[in-house]
Each structure stands twice: as structure tokens, then as C-alpha cells.
């Protein structure tokens, strides 16, 4: 039997980068259908191992758990894990270095984001974990192969021709069609859609806001589009209105996914489920009330995540500031991975400029990505006259000048079409209890 050369090339390249990806992928395809109590047993074993590792090797947890009066022998008792203290974004910001395992520091990578909550976050993670297997599992549920041709509506970080060429060469013969989501124009969307129909990709992936905008263009212009096997939206929850719009434009199912800077692969949909299947091999999720007690299944609570596989920069009972809940019914697809409800309320606005150019909302959240330490919080507001204000809580008086430079550069990237100003504030205004980091005044 001859093997698909695309598949061989793809797996060979990954085996150089993450040698364990192949067999681990095989394992998680099996474990998503194992009886739930077997999955739960594995989760608990992983939690015990991780906490024992943290107590011995991670300065932050050694101190936190000692102050709390926890010792490893407490793991004998039921509910020991749910009694451990919670870790907050503030802890992460103020004690970043103490979260690192000194003996494994060389494996740490850093991830930063403006984040959906408007608080810049910097986190470390173990670069050896082959996270791509969770992406492959998601694709597998829709009959998509990672070595198929794919299309992306993405923030394109490779600006130079040389960098683009190198990337294309790396993935050859698989083709990746890209539309830069930062600045969408009618022209760029039209050119992308033309290439999309010629390439016939099996997957379209991108930011919710940007993909919706492309879908709106398709419908407005009555274009007949090639249907990929799935449209996979990321980086913000997928409101039902947007889902309908995208389905209609591309005639394909839409897959919602949930992740964050601190844990990128929390949960994702299958083709039938109402909620999102949690990647329990990778992350342990809890929902708790204001007193940190678990809420009953089906009720909303504050989300705590524990990265089960990460011993280099462990996050244990980390509060990511989202609210969520378990779905009580098992999914009809037969996968036993438990389901959470889709995360709501973090919708993202886009801005319009006088020329008609649209600035993608998710792009606006990335302004401080490269320097997440300089601000405690921010939001970007477009007033009725289309002028833009970046409200920002500076880290301290020294960081103010740096913030002003970043906002200036941002204004220049918009082509000086509208005034862009910077305003220092002590507090970012909430909207009915939710932080909205991109606001368009109507
Ligand atoms: Zn399912």
C-alpha cells in the first residue's frame, strides 16, 4: 500500500520538531472515546504527579502550599485538590520567575497576549509539549487532514517576501493560503476568495471577527464559494449570529474552540455537539463560586485551569477570568470527553475608518503583545466621530512614555486617517460586569 506523499512529508517534518507527536496523537484519538471514569482516573493521577512535582521543584508553589499548610500526605483524602489555594493573574504577573522549574528552565518558551480580558498577560510553557496534536484531533473530527491545503484569515506576522517563501517551502507540498486579518479591505478579501476557490482547501481557519467579515462580503456580493469541510474560528467565542452567517456564506459547519494565552488547547467542538469537548489529557477544568467551592454541574462559575502536561511552568488552579459551566448531557457523537458550554460575552468589535477600511477587532487587542509588562490594563475605544482613544493603566510613571510611543506607532499604521490618542486612566470601565477591550461608541 502506498502512503500519501503529502502525509509522509508532513509527518516527517513534525517528527523532527516534536518526535512524540505521532504516537501521542494516536493515544488521544483512542482516549477521547474511553469510559469517563478511566479518563477521570488518569486526570487525578496527573494532578497528583503535577502537584508533587510543584511542591518539590517550583518556588511559588512550595511557598504557597506551605503557607496554606498542605503536605503531600493530604493527597490521601478525597477532595484534596479542590482545597488547594487558587492562583491569579496577579500572582503570575508579580511572581513570574518563581513559577519556573529551575532545572528545566532551558525548555521554557514565553507566550504573551493582550488577552480577551484587556489585561496583558505573559506566561511560560514547556516548549516540548506537542500541542499540535489537539489541533489534529479537532481537524480529524471533521475529516480534515493536517497535510491538506488550508486557508487562514490570520494576523500575518511574516511580512517579508523571503520569510513568506521560506514558510511556503517548509510546508511544501501542502499549500497554506493566507489573508492578513489586521487590515481587511474589499480588494484584499476579493483577491483571497478568488484564490480560495482555485485552491479548494479542506479547512478555513481564522479569527471570529475577521472570518465573519469575509463571510459578510461573500453574502453581499452573492459569491458562490467552495465549501471547506469545516470553518474553524478561534480567539474569541463564536456568537450564534456569526455562526449562521459563516455557515451560509461557505456552506460548511463551523467549529468553535476555546483556549487562552495560558492554555491554548482547552476545548473544541465536534460536528454534533452543542458545547465544546474538553481536552482532558491536557487540561483539568473546574468551575467555582465566589467562595471557591465547586458549583453543581450545569451552573455557571469562575473558570480554573490546570495544565496537566506542563512541569516547566506549572499552572495549578489558575483563574483565567472567564466564566463557564459544564453541560450535563453527554454528547451524541459518542466521544466521552466531557463538554463545557460555549464561552459567552467576549464579543469583539471592529472599527471602520472614513475610507471604508475596516480594522479587525482581534488585531486591536494585540497592540501591547510585544510589551505586555508596561500596562496593567487597556481598552481601545472608537468614538462616534471615528476618532480612536487607547485607554491604558500604565504600570508606573516610567512606562508612560513607552506606551505613548506604541500608541503613536499604532496611529501611523492606520494611515493617519483618524486621530488616535492615548489616555491614562486608573480603572478600565466595565460593561455589565464584563471587561470589553474593544468598544465602538454608537
Ligand atoms: Zn461530540
Describe this entry's structure for a reader.
The chain has 442 residues and is α/β, with parallel strands linked by helices. The chain contains 13 helices and 22 strands. An 8-stranded mixed sheet has the order 4-3-6-7-8-9-10-14. A 4-stranded mixed sheet has the order 19-18-17-22, covered by helices on one side. Strands 5-16-15 form a 3-stranded antiparallel sheet. The N and C termini lie far apart (62 Å). 37% of the residues are buried. The structure holds zinc ion (ZN). Zinc ion binds next to loops.
Question: Helices and strands in order, then pairings?
Answer:
Elements: H1 5-17, H2 21-31, H3 36-57, H4 59-68, H5 80-83, H6 89-94, E1 108-113, E2 121-126, H7 132-141, E3 150-154, H8 161-171, E4 176-180, E5 183-184, H9 186-199, E6 203-207, H10 208-220, E7 230-234, H11 240-250, E8 254-258, E9 267-268, E10 276-278, E11 283-288, E12 301-307, E13 318-324, E14 339-340, E15 351-352, E16 358-359, H12 361-364, E17 375-382, E18 388-394, H13 399-413, E19 420-424, E20 430-431, E21 434-435, E22 438-440
Parallel strand pairs: 3-4, 3-6, 6-7, 7-8, 17-22, 18-19
Antiparallel strand pairs: 1-2, 5-16, 8-9, 9-10, 10-14, 11-12, 12-13, 15-16, 17-18, 20-21
Please provide a brief summary of the model.
This protein has 442 residues and is an alpha/beta fold.
Number of extended strands: 22
Give every kind of bound small molecule, once each: zinc ion
Please give the radius of gyration in angstroms. 22 Å
Shape: globular
Broad structural category: alpha/beta
The span between the termini is: 62 Å
Q: Give me the number of helical elements.
A: 13
Query: Which segments are poorly predicted (pLDDT under 50) over 5 or more consecutive residues?
Result: none
Q: What is the helical fraction, as a range of percent?
A: 25-40%
> What amount of the residues lies in strands?
15-25%
Return the average pLDDT rounded to an integer: 87
Strands of the widest sheet, in order across it, are 4-3-6-7-8-9-10-14
**Main sheet, how many strands, which sense, barrel?**
8 strands, mixed
Amino acid at each position: 500500500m502506498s502512503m500519501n506523499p503529502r502525509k509522509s512529508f508532513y509527518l516527517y517534518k513534525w517528527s523532527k520538531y516534536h518526535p512524540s507527536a505521532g504516537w501521542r496523537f494516536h493515544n488521544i484519538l483512542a482516549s477521547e472515546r474511553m469510559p469517563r471514569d478511566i479518563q477521570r482516573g488518569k486526570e487525578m493521577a496527573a494532578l497528583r504527579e503535577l502537584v508533587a512535582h510543584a511542591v518539590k521543584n517550583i518556588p511559588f508553589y512550595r511557598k504557597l502550599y506551605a503557607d496554606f499548610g498542605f503536605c503531600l500526605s493530604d493527597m490521601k483524602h478525597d477532595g484534596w485538590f479542590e482545597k488547594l489555594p487558587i492562583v491569579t493573574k496577579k500572582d503570575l504577573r508579580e511572581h513570574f520567575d518563581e513559577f519556573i522549574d529551575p532545572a528545566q528552565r532551558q525548555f521554557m518558551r514565553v507566550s504573551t497576549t493582550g488577552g480577551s480580558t484587556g489585561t496583558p498577560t505573559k506566561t511560560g510553557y514547556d516548549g516540548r509539549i506537542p500541542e499540535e496534536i489537539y489541533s489534529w484531533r479537532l481537524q480529524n473530527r471533521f475529516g480534515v487532514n493536517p497535510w491538506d491545503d488550508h486557508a487562514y484569515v490570520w494576523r500575518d506576522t511574516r511580512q517579508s517576501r523571503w520569510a513568506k517563501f521560506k514558510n511556503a517551502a517548509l510546508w511544501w507540498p501542502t499549500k497554506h493560503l493566507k489573508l492578513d486579518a489586521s487590515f481587511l479591505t474589499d480588494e484584499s478579501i476579493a483577491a483571497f476568495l478568488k484564490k480560495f476557490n482555485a485552491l479548494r482547501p479542506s479547512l478555513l481557519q481564522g479569527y471570529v471577527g475577521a472570518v465573519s467579515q469575509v463571510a459578510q462580503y461573500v453574502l453581499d456580493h452573492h459569491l458562490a464559494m467552495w465549501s471547506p469541510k469545516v470553518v474553524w474560528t478561534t480567539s474569541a467565542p463564536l456568537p450564534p449570529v456569526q455562526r449562521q452567517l459563516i455557515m451560509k456564506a461557505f456552506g460548511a459547519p463551523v467549529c468553535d474552540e476555546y483556549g487562552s494565552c495560558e492554555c491554548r488547547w482547552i476545548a473544541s467542538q465536534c460536528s454534533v455537539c452543542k458545547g465544546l469537548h474538553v481536552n482532558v489529557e491536557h487540561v483539568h477544568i473546574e468551575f467555582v463560586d465566589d467562595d471557591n467551592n465547586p458549583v453543581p454541574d450545569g451552573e455557571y462559575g469562575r473558570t480554573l485551569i490546570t495544565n496537566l502536561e506542563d512541569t516547566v511552568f506549572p499552572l495549578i488552579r489558575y483563574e483565567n477570568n472567564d466564566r463557564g459551566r459544564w453541560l450535563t448531557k453527554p454528547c451524541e457523537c459518542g466521544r466521552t470527553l466531557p463538554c463545557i458550554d460555549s464561552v459567552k460575552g467576549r464579543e469583539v468589535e471592529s472599527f471602520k475608518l472614513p475610507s471604508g477600511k475596516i480594522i479587525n477587532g482581534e488585531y486591536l487587542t494585540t497592540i501591547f503583545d510585544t510589551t505586555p509588562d508596561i500596562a496593567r490594563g487597556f481598552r481601545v475605544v472608537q468614538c462616534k466621530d471615528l476618532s480612536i482613544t487607547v485607554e491604558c493603566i500604565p504600570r508606573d510613571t516610567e512606562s508612560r512614555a513607552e506606551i505613548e510611543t506604541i500608541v503613536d506607532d499604532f496611529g501611523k499604521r492606520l494611515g493617519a486617517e483618524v486621530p488616535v490618542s492615548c489616555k491614562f486612566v486608573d480603572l478600565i470601565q466595565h460593561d455589565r460586569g464584563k471587561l470589553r477591550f474593544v468598544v465602538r461608541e454608537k
